[in-house]
Structure formats: structure tokens, C-alpha cells
């Protein structure tokens, strides 16, 4: 329970005449204070002025009071200079206890940082702890976006449709993931999509996002009974654009989109269908009552069923009923429906502690009718109905008791990263935090202990933890919390055993990680979690690091004699250029002459030529201290023929001696393509890639078990992801074998997993990798290939969109991302064309690798050969922009926009995963300077506005109408942060 001193009416209540911004940039009307300097300069709407601290002393802060509670969606911080900044953004209900929104205290390169956030808060604080360059703490503009008009009510609710295409089900339209979407099952029209909010809700706005810009014919309607419909947004005559929204005002339970057609003949679709407003927070809740007639329990008043109700046991008065919302909420309206029409004397009150009450609706002098409601504004958890009289002598009752508002305390674990000690196929850790009560995490065997861990991404204010097992039993378990994933505090201890299925504990602390450890059960049930909830206040991360990451440098340490300690010494420079991760190619022991050393002679040690295991651990520690990720390019497909275990395998085969090493390889008496004779083995062995790198044998359980051991060994060192070399051609591999022994192991860590050499969305849906190389844009090594460079040479980018749709977008829609480098193998490309290629890659939505194969950058080069300093600066500005502004992240929506000539120019909007951060990208594929005009009609962009240039940090030409023009040099580009 929050301390009562923090929950008094004064700190949350808004006076009836108090002005505030309803939505948009809330900073413009906020009260700003700072540790030093002129705080108001950071919220005056101008990049020409800035808050600047008066000293270089660390921990300078800037704070906003938004004047009331708002649901936040995005924060944007603009420093006065580009640098490597250490800062964090926090938010609070009361100005005292703070939850982290954005943590960049390890340092992040850039000047303008745009991040999606979530949660309802009143105060926002920026704390700058320094910069690599020694700059003074500053903020040209700290912008905070949100609304006081409610939340998006659609996520987590029942969604149905007239039809749907496999992989594009109705729920994809309401999953807060702009790269996934609903598509109807055929081209026939009309088609409809419907959201059931579960109970009548106060709806303040509706929004529909199609996949493409077109002239769409559609309607959005609302209904209370799923029969009689009211039009909320009428586009039945045709509206041009892609994103359509409208403010509305009314009470509806069902909201329906009906698509009637489009000019281009697109199938009905919705990338995101949103319904804004205030939900009935009393739905399904219970509490206590003065008396309850059997069969007329309290929950009958909160089940959204007019045929059921709560009723007291007699006509005696007064009687009361209390509803516990389960969490603190910003309450906007209360409603009470009696069973009968009568003259009643009653009142409704609110409380934060179930002890001190505030009157919300007072009819104690009497009021005639059956249904009563009152708009209110305040923070409460408990609502009480007290009935003192009925003129006709009716018993106290409530047919429906509704409380509309926004919860302040939420399930922070919902959609957060979850990992586990093990998993049974199909029962991944994420199933415990997906909001679906029918799915669950389950360990891989009955052995205990097993653990499940949730990473909220940022420190949060936690006040309750809840654990639900799959089966009712006497369970032995404990729940713990940690801020650093190292030191743990016990929150709920049932290690001695407790009977039941559902368990909860009120707590009060700040934690980022919550861990469930299952020690056993009386009936021997396998460790499981149907639902693990973390109730509190915060802004948990729903996106994984690779979904919003940028800039990977791949190192070939053995091939180029680069030690791990040298790589560690380069991390600061890499981060300053915009790199967010490094990838180590085959750091284990083995010669470097084939595929940069992918064939191992020892799978479990660091090659002495590049360092030791302690050097490897130090590199991981140093990267983590800088907020960077470390990936490994490993190999369970083949070994080096000089490996001692392959020598033993040959000897054991010759002597017909069983050993696990012999079973790791494939021997037979006859030859054939890719089969090589070994006199030592007295047999042929299989080697897909060549005689000196014999293939491992996935036909045997021995190698499958070794694969699991190998992946766990390296992941337990603390890696942030694993790339597997060419898994599609492993000897004996199938999707089922791959999943059970490779990707399911990686999924237990909830980590980045790449299938090198394996293209297409099937490697996401069937093989369970989450990062796929985009061979439709450029190849990865080998012969030169590119689709972007020819488009530049031909000065015609018009074909790129369909290429991206067919591969990148399909992989994103399946739940993965793509990764793509420039096509360095295509030789002779001048810097200006290469920069346009890189500008395209860093903005369309892909995890950007600067190099390709074993090419650029080489370890001894800090710059690209023959590039001018100015061109180098342009490259790093592109990389830093993708790293700092989440609209350019690998996942999220890309919507192509019409220009005056799509055969010459390529323009599109980009959003991050949840759609809260937006960018406008305009690319000039012409060999001469051009003025490019883009049509912004119904693109979801605010008009008018002044965008910020994400590459220079300056203001861009203002957007004053739906027709927006910019002048770009030959092969030029602009990348703008927009609202």
C-alpha cells in the first residue's frame, strides 16, 4: 500500500478551473524547475533556447509538474550538442517516489533521443550525470507526450473478424505492435473487425491504421448491445490516407471497423485499431458488503450482465457494498443501477485505504429513478455504495456498479522480457506474462528447482506480486525482487509449502527483476506459471533490445589477430559512432584459415591467440557498463578436422568402439557428394562445406545433447545473443530438432537468435529464430548483390517498397526482424551513392551492420578508406540517429508516402514498435538537386508542426499543410523527427 501521505486529495485533485493540455506535448503547459539554470527554456517550444546548468557538476536535473495525471506515450530529449550523454528520465505520481522511464546512465551517443514510454504520471524528471566530452547538462527541449483522455482500451480485449489470413489474425490489430496486423481472409468486401471492451466504457476517441496509403472506404461504429450501432467515424464515401482518427464522446462496449473497399484493391487490413477512453475498472471485481443474499453475490453487480445483481438479505437499512478495484486508479465517473425504479436515498464514496472516505455522488436526500451517474476526478482504490432508504421498500441492490477510469498501478510484467531455467516446447517463459490466461510457462522436466525471471527493463515501484500455477497443489516456491539481477530480496516465501493455485503478496519497493523459484509440489507437478503479475507503477519495456537496437560491429578476432582486450579498448569509440552491439566471430579455439575460424578444435575455450576466458568475461563486463550488447557468431554445424575429438571419433569408428565423440560425426562405408574418405576412420565422413571441416551429426541424440550444452555454456557467460552458422544445412537437421535443441534453448534466455544463411519468415514461424538476414536487399558475402545500388544507379527507387513488403515486412509480421549491411561487394560505388544506400538501410527498419562478410570496417581502420571527413561525419550521424531515435528501430511500421514522382523519390513514415515515436524519411534517388513534395494527408502526422532534423539537430522546414516540400542535393536525404 502506498503511504497515505503520498495519496492525499491535494496532490492529485485538479481544481475545476485549472488549465492543462489534454493531449500532445504536455511540457508546453507544465511548471518547470531545475537544479540550476533557466528551466523554462526547455519547454518553450523553441530549439533556439535551452536550459543549461550553471555548473559542470554531475547530477543536474530538470523537472516538470504536468498539473495533473496524464497517460504518457513518448518522451523526447534534445541536448545542445551531439555527444555521448549519461542521463535518465523518471516519472512520479507525487514528486517523491520515482519510476524510471528511460535509463541511459551508462551512456548513449546522439543529440536527440526519442523513446516510447507508458504509465500514468504527474511529474517527469530529467537527470544528467555527465557526458564523455565534458559538456554541461542541457536541454533545448524536453518534450513529454501524453493525454488525460484515457488509455487505448483495445489491447487484451476479445477481438473478432469476418475472416482472417493465417498469421494475420484479428488480435494482431490490437497488440500494440505496429509491424503486425490483421488481414482479411480474402479480397471480398465488406469485411469487419470488432473489439469487445468487456463492459460499457467511456470512449473518447477511435483510430484506424491501414497498412498502406490509399483511398479507403470504411466506417467505425460503437454499440452497447452488439445490435444497434452508432457511427463514430464515417469514411464510407472514401478517405485518402493511411491513419484516421476522431475524438468522440459516448458509452459503448463494442467498437467495430467495417472495410468496404480501397481504390488500389487492397485486402481489408488493420495494423493498429485503437479505442481510447476509460474502462469500467469495476468489471469482475469484488469486495465486501453489509449482507449478501445467497445467489446475489457482489460480483453479480460487476459482471456487466443486467440479468444478475447484488442484493442485501432483507429490507432493513442502511446497507452497503464495497468494491475493491485491486489497484489505485484515476477515477473519472461512477454509475449505479438499481434493480427497480424507485426513490432512493444513497451515496457513493471513494477511498485509497478502505478507511477514509470521500463522497463522490450524494443522493442522501433522495432521488427518483433506477440509473444514476456522476463525473468525478480523483484517485481511489475502493468504491462504496451505501443505501439508506427506498420509498417502495425495495431491498438494497445493485444491478450494475461501474467505475470508469485509468489504473495507476498496472501489471508491469505484461509483455516484458521473461527467461527461465528451462522450457517445454510450446511453453516458453513469455507465456507467463502474455496476458492470456490459457497459456503458460512450463519447465522441461519434473526436476526442481526451476526458475522463471521477468525483466521489467527499468526500475519500477512494485506494490504486489501475484503467481498463478497451472494446477492446484501444495506448492513450494518463493518470489524475489532485484534491482541489479544479482542481489535478491525475498518478496513471498512459501518454500515450506502452501496449498492452492493462486498466491499474492503486498510489497513495497523498487525492483527491475522479479524471480519465481519453484522448489517442488506435493503431487509432483512440473514447475509452471500460468500468470506471473507484478503490480505497481512504472514504464516497463515491451520491446526486446534487438527490436529497438541499432548498429552492430562484427569482429573477426582470430582472422585479423585482434585480441579481446583490444576490442574492449575500442568500445567507447564504437559507442560514440552509434554502435549498440558487437558480434564476435568464432572466438573459441580453432585455426582461422577457414571461414574466419568457425571450425573449432575446442568448443569450450577462448582461442589463445585472442585472449583468455577471463578476457572474454571482461569484454562482456566492459560492454555492459557502456550499455552495449555482445553477440557471438558460433557454430554447431561442423568442426575442424584437427580437433582431438574428431581424431578420437575416427579411431573409435575404426575400432567399432562406442563413444559420444564417434556419434557426433557421420561415418559410412560408401562415398558420395560431400563424403570424404578417412583411412584413420576406415570409412567416409560427411562434410558439407569441405574436407577439412567435418559436419556434426544431428541424426544422433549425442550431438543434439552436446548442442544444448554448447549453447548454454556460452549464453551463461552473459551473451546478449547468438548467431548460428548456416543451420539450414546442418546434417540431419529438421525444424523439430532445431527447435528442441537450438532455438528453444535460446528462447529460455529470451535472447537474439540469428540463423545465418537462412532466408524468409519461415525461419521465424517454423524454426523460431528472431533475426533473419535480408537477402532481398543485399547478400552476405560471396558474389556482389544489391537491390538498392541498382535503384540508385537507375535513379528509380519505385521497386524497393514491394521488395521490403515481401520480405522485411513479412518477417516483422511473423515476430522477427531483419539484419542488413551495405553491399560492399558491389565495387566502385562512390561515397554519395553509398551514403544514400546506408541512409535507406538505417531508416527502413532493419538491424544495421556496417560491414559485410569480412569487409569494411577492417580492425585496423577507424575510417572507411578514401572517404572524406565530411562523408565520415554523415555516416556516423545516420548510425547515431537510428540508435537514439526509436522511430528508426528494426521493428515497427513503415508506410510509403506518395511524392510527385515515386520513380524518382522514396518517402515514408516510420514508427517504433508501439507507434509512439515517429519519423519522416525523404530520399532523393536523383543525380541532381531536387525539390521533393510529399503528401501527408491522413498519415497521422500533426499539421502544423516544425520537425527536427535528426541528422543535424537543427529545425527542419515547417510542415504547414498536407503538401510538404523539401529540397535535397543529388542522392540526398533527410530524416526528421515528427509528431
Topology diagram in text:
Layout: H1 9-12, E1 23-25, E2 31-34, E3 51-52, E4 60-92, E5 98-116, E6 120-131, E7 138-139, E8 141-147, E9 151-152, E10 158-161, E11 182-183, E12 191-223, E13 230-262, E14 269-270, E15 272-280, E16 287-289, E17 310-311, E18 319-351, E19 358-390, E20 397-398, E21 400-407, E22 410-411, E23 417-420, E24 441-442, E25 450-482, E26 489-521, E27 528-529, E28 531-537, E29 552-555, H2 564-569, H3 571-577, E30 581-585, E31 588-589, E32 602-606, H4 613-625, E33 629-634, H5 644-654, H6 660-663, E34 667-668, E35 675-678, E36 683-686, H7 701-715, E37 721-724, H8 735-748, E38 752-755, H9 762-765, E39 771-773, H10 788-793, H11 800-813, E40 817-820, H12 831-844, E41 847-848, H13 869-884, E42 894-897, E43 905-911, E44 918-924, E45 930-935, E46 948-949, E47 963-968, E48 973-978
Parallel strand pairs: 29-30, 30-33, 33-37, 37-38, 39-40, 40-41
Antiparallel strand pairs: 1-8, 2-4, 3-7, 4-5, 4-6, 4-8, 9-15, 10-12, 11-14, 12-13, 12-15, 15-21, 16-18, 17-20, 18-19, 18-21, 22-28, 23-25, 24-27, 25-26, 25-28, 31-32, 34-36, 35-36, 42-43, 43-44, 44-48, 45-47, 46-48
Helix pairs in contact: 7-8, 12-13
Amino acid at each position: 500500500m502506498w503511504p497515505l501521505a503520498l495519496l492525499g486529495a491535494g496532490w492529485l485533485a485538479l481544481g475545476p478551473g485549472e488549465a492543462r493540455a489534454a493531449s500532445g506535448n504536455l511540457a508546453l503547459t507544465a511548471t518547470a524547475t531545475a537544479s540550476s539554470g533557466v528551466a523554462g527554456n526547455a519547454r518553450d517550444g523553441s530549439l533556439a533556447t535551452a536550459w543549461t546548468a550553471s555548473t559542470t557538476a554531475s547530477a543536474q536535473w530538470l523537472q516538470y509538474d504536468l498539473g495533473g495525471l496524464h497517460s504518457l506515450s513518448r518522451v523526447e530529449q534534445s541536448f545542445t550538442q551531439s555527444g555521448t550523454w549519461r542521463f535518465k528520465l523518471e516519472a512520479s505520481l507525487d514528486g517523491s517516489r520515482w519510476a524510471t522511464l528511460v535509463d541511459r546512465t551508462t551512456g548513449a551517443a546522439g543529440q536527440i533521443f526519442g523513446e516510447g514510454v507508458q504509465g500514468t504520471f504527474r511529474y517527469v524528471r530529467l537527470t544528467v550525470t555527465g557526458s564523455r566530452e565534458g559538456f554541461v547538462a542541457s536541454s533545448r527541449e524536453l518534450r513529454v507526450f501524453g493525454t488525460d483522455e484515457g488509455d487505448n482500451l483495445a489491447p487484451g480485449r476479445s477481438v473478432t473478424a469476418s475472416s482472417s489470413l493465417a498469421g494475420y489474425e484479428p488480435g494482431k490489430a490490437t497488440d500494440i505492435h505496429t509491424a503486425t496486423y490483421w488481414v482479411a481472409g480474402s479480397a471480398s468486401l465488406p469485411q469487419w473487425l470488432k473489439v469487445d471492451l468487456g463492459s460499457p466504457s467511456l470512449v473518447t476517441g477511435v483510430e484506424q491504421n491501414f497498412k498502406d496509403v490509399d483511398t479507403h472506404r470504411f466506417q467505425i461504429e460503437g454499440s452497447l448491445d452488439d445490435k444497434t450501432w452508432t457511427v463514430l467515424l464515417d469514411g464510407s464515401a472514401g478517405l485518402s490516407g493511411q491513419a484516421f482518427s476522431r475524438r468522440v464522446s459516448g458509452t459503448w462496449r463494442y467498437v467495430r471497423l467495417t472495410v468496404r473497399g480501397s481504390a488500389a484493391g487492397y485486402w481489408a487490413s488493420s495494423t493498429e485499431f485503437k479505442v481510447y477512453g476509460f474502462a469500467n475498472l469495476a468489471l469482475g471485481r469484488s469486495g465486501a458488503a453489509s449482507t449478501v443474499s445467497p445467489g446475489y453475490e457482489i460480483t453479480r453487480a460487476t459482471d456487466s450482465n443486467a440479468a444478475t445483481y447484488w442484493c442485501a438479505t432483507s429490507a432493513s437499512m442502511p446497507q452497503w457494498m464495497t468494491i475493491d478495484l485491486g489497484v489505485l486508479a484515476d477515477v473519472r465517473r461512477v454509475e449505479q443501477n438499481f434493480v427497480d425504479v424507485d426513490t432512493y436515498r444513497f451515496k457513493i464514496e471513494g477511498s485509497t485505504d478502505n478507511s477514509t472516505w470521500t463522497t463522490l455522488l450524494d443522493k442522501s436526500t433522495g432521488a427518483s429513478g433506477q440509473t444514476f451517474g456522476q463525473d468525478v476526478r480523483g484517485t481511489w482504490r475502493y468504491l462504496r455504495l451505501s443505501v439508506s432508504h427506498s420509498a417502495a421498500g425495495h431491498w438494497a441492490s445493485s444491478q450494475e456498479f461501474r467505475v470508469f477510469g485509468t489504473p495507476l498501478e498496472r501489471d508491469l510484467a505484461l509483455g516484458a522480457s521473461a527467461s527461465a531455467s528451462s522450457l517445454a516446447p510450446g511453453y516458453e517463459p513469455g507465456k507467463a506474462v502474455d496476458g492470456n490466461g490459457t497459456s503458460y510457462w512450463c519447465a522441461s522436466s519434473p526436476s526442481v528447482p526451476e526458475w522463471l525471471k521477468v525483466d521489467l527493463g527499468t526500475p519500477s515501484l512494485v506494490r504486489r506480486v501475484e503467481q498463478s500455477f497451472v494446477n492446484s497443489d501444495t506448492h513450494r516456491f518463493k518470489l524475489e525482487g532485484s534491482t541489479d539481477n544479482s542481489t535478491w530480496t525475498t518478496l513471498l516465501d512459501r518454500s515450506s509449502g502452501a496449498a492452492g493455485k493462486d498466491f499474492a503478496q503486498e510489497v513495497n519497493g523498487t525492483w527491475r527483476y522479479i524471480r519465481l523459484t519453484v522448489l517442488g509440489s506435493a503431487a509432483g507437478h512440473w514447475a509452471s506459471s500460468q500468470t506471473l503479475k507484478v503490480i505497481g507503477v512504472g514504464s516497463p519495456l515491451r520491446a526486446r533490445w534487438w527490436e529497438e537496437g541499432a548498429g552492430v560491429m562484427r569482429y573477426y578476432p582470430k582472422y585479423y589477430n585482434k585480441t579481446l582486450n583490444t576490442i574492449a579498448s575500442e568500445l567507447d569509440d564504437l559507442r560514440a559512432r552509434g554502435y549498440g552491439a558487437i558480434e564476435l566471430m568464432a572466438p573459441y579455439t580453432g585455426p582461422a584459415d577457414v571461414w574466419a575460424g568457425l571450425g573449432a578444435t575446442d568448443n569450450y575455450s577462448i582461442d589463445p591467440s585472442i585472449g583468455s576466458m577471463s578476457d572474454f568475461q571482461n569484454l562482456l563486463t566492459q560492454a555492459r557498463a557502456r550499455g552495449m550488447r555482445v553477440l557471438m557468431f558460433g557454430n554447431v554445424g561442423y568442426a575442424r578436422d584437427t580437433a582431438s575429438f574428431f581424431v578420437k571419433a575416427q579411431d573409435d569408428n575404426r575400432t567399432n568402439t562406442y563413444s559420444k565423440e564417434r556419434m557426433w560425426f557421420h561415418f559410412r562405408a560408401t562415398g558420395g557428394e560431400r563424403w570424404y574418405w578417412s583411412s584413420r576412420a576406415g570409412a567416409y565422413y560427411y562434410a558439407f562445406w569441405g574436407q577439412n571441416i567435418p559436419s556434426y551429426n544431428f541424426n544422433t541424440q549425442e550431438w543434439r545433447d552436446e548442442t544444448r550444452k554448447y549453447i548454454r555454456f556460452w549464453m551463461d557467460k552473459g551473451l546478449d545473443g547468438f548467431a548460428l552458422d548456416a543451420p539450414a544445412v546442418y546434417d540431419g537437421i529438421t525444424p523439430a530438432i532445431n527447435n528442441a535443441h537450438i532455438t528453444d534453448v535460446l528462447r529460455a534466455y529470451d535472447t537474439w537468435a540469428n540463423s545465418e544463411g537462412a532466408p524468409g519468415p519461415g525461419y521465424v514461424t517454423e524454426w523460431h529464430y528472431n533475426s533473419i538476414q535480408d537477402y532481398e536487399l543485399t547478400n552476405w558475402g560471396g558474389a556482389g548483390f544489391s537491390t538498392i545500388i541498382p535503384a540508385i544507379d537507375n535513379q528509380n527507387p519505385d521497386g524497393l517498397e514491394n521488395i521490403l513488403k515481401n520480405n522485411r515486412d513479412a518477417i516483422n509480421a511473423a515476430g522477427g526482424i531483419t539484419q542488413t549491411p551495405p553491399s560492399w561487394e558491389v565495387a566502385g560505388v562512390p561515397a554519395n551513392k553509398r551514403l544514400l544506400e546506408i541512409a535507406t538501410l538505417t531508416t527502413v527498419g532493419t538491424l544495421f551492420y556496417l560491414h559485410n562478410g569480412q569487409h569494411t570496417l577492417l580492425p585496423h581502420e577507424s575510417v572507411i578508406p578514401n572517404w572524406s571527413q565530411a562523408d565520415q561525419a554523415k555516416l556516423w550521424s545516420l548510425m547515431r540517429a537510428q540508435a537514439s531515435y526509436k522511430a528508426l528501430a528494426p521493428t515497427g511500421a513503415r508506410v510509403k508516402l506518395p511524392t510527385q514522382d515515386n520513380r524518382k523519390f522514396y518517402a515514408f513514415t516510420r514508427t517504433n514498435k508501439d507507434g509512439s515515436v515517429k519519423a519522416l524519411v525523404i530520399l532523393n534517388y536523383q543525380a541532381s538537386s531536387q525539390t521533393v513534395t510529399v503528401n501527408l494527408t491522413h498519415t497521422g502526422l500533426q499539421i502544423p508542426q516544425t520537425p527536427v532534423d535528426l541528422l543535424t539537430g537543427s529545425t527542419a522546414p515547417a510542415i504547414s499543410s498536407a503538401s510538404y516540400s523539401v529540397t535535397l542535393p543529388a542522392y540526398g536525404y533527410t530524416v526528421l523527427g515528427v509528431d
